[in-house]
Amino acid sequence: MTHDTRRWEQQISQAGYRVTRQRALVLDAVCAGRGHTTLTEVAGRVRRRDRTVSRSTVYRALHMFVATGVVVQADTGDAEPYYEIARETPHHHLRCRDCGWEGEITADDLSALEETVRDRYGFVVNTDHLVLFGQCAACQSRSQS
Fold first, then answer.
1. Reading across the β-sheet that carries 131-134, which strands appear in turn?
2. Which of 103, 3, 111 is nearest to 11 (CA)?
3. Contact at 8 Å (CB) between 32 and 43?
4. What is the pLDDT at residue 95?
5. What φ, ψ does residue 130 adopt, rounded to 5°?
6. N or C: which end of the chain has fewer CB within 10 A?
7. Torsion of CA 85, 86, 88, 89, to 10 degrees
8. What pLDDT is attached to residue 130?
9. CA 10, CA 5: separation in Å to the nearest integer?
10. Which domains occur in the chain, in start order?
11. Contact present, 102 and 93 (Cβ < 8 Å)
12. Which of 69, 74, 62 lies closest to 35 in space, CA to CA?
């Protein structure tokens, strides 16, 4: 998904933010990552198009986009969090700690867990981008050999 398929301008305006050329550049840079992309990668893409945009401007724009739901942020265990354009339906990730393999699962796949957490702890989960760490099938079979 790209930001062109979303009404991001309307989304941030309704939240009280202005639409600016720098913010459009940041979204273009997130989309250019074709999925997960780091702040460093986004800042590099933006700076190649406009040397006057600082890393802190990119950081603040990403923070605003996450707060308004245009972009989602995930901590996948690497040094930096990853960013991607929010989808119409939330999804989550599986990440193998051994080989780094990543897979996606739907929000529906976690609904039973969210229900259990709500019932047992009175806590409503509202994450739209969760990363579950573990061991993929290939690494499991290698470790059993």
1. 102-106, 91-96, 131-134
2. 3
3. no
4. 86
5. -105, 145
6. C
7. 130
8. 81
9. 12
10. 3-85 (1.10.10.10), 91-144 (3.30.1490.190)
11. yes
12. 74
Structural element, H or E, at residue 42? helix 39-49
pLDDT in tens, 52-101: 999 999 999 999 999 998 998 887 667 788 898 888 877 788 889 899 88
37: tokens are 């992309």
Q: How far apart are CA 65 and CA 85, in angstroms?
A: 9
Range 60-99 burial, b when 16+ CB lie within 10 A, else e: ebbebbbebebbbbbebeeeebbbbbbeeebbbbbbbeee
Contacts (Cβ under 8 Å, ≥6 apart) of 116: none
Tens-place pLDDT, residues 1-37: 445 556 889 999 999 999 999 999 999 999 998 778 9
